[in-house]
Structure formats: C-alpha cells, structure tokens
Design a protein that fits this description.
The chain is 44% helix and 20% strand. The protein has 84 residues and is α+β, with helices and mostly antiparallel strands.
Length: 84
C-alpha cells in the first residue's frame, strides 16, 4: 500500500514493514503492539499508515538510533521503544 507521501508499506502478521533510506538501507518493522497500544492505530491498514505518518519523525529517529547501534538491519520497533 502507498500513502499520499508515496511511502510503501507492507504488513507481516500485523506488523508494519518499510524500508528506511539510510546508509546502509534497512528494513524496519513496527510491531502490531506498538501501532495499537502506543501510536493508537485503529488496526486497519489505513489507520496504521495514518499513525505512521503522524509519528514518522519519532519512528525514523528510533530506527536510526537502533541501526547505528546494530550496524545493520532489520530493525524492530517495539511498544517499549516508543515509551522511552
């Protein structure tokens, strides 16, 4: 699915996946729990995209921080990451 910004999203078992344009590029997974409990998605694909767009700066910051620590992807963003 693509939103009005042209970002492409995929879902795997309810988790939202996207490729972060970083160096190196990395796949990022935002867990269903993070989407629902912390970002307040309504659970629909459109709801997931909406909360992603609304919180994209925070999601990208967490993804960048985790990528720097790990050195490579994939990266998973959990609900607990959004609480800190």
């Amino acid at each position: 699915m693509a939103n009005k910004f042209g970002w492409a999203f995929l879902w795997d078992n309810g988790d939202l996946l996207f490729n972060m344009a970083s160096n190196p590029p990395a796949q990022v997974r935002v867990t269903r729990e993070a989407l629902d409990d912390e970002l307040r998605s309504d659970g629909t694909p459109q709801g997931d995209e909406d909360v992603f767009v609304e919180n994209s700066e925070l999601i990208f910051a967490i993804g960048t921080r985790k990528l720097a620590a790990a050195g490579t992807g994939p990266i998973t963003i959990f609900a607990s990451d959004l609480r800190n």
